[in-house]
Description:
The chain is α/β, with parallel strands linked by helices and about 100 residues long. The chain is built from four helices and three strands; from the N terminus they run H-E-H-E-H-E-H.
Amino acid sequence: MTASNGKEAVEVFQTEKDSIDIVILDMIMPNMSGSETFDELRKIKPDTQVLLSSGYSLDNQAEEIMNRGCNGFLQKPFNLQELSQKLRDTLISPT
């Protein structure tokens, strides 16, 4: 499932939460920031696995989300192997 912005992501998640194992969340999105989206997803389902992705390094905003319980960070650009490994690590050993 995909969403083009944070608001849409929350709407999709609300409807499909029981069939979603992990969310890959971009830091910068239209309509709602990654931080706000993360908070809304966790309100809906507190144990949601969330992998944060950003083209920026683990800066203050990303680090703050990580400290609030985000399960992992994936630096852009990434390839399919890096994505696969990070998904595996997150789903097998959630933090």
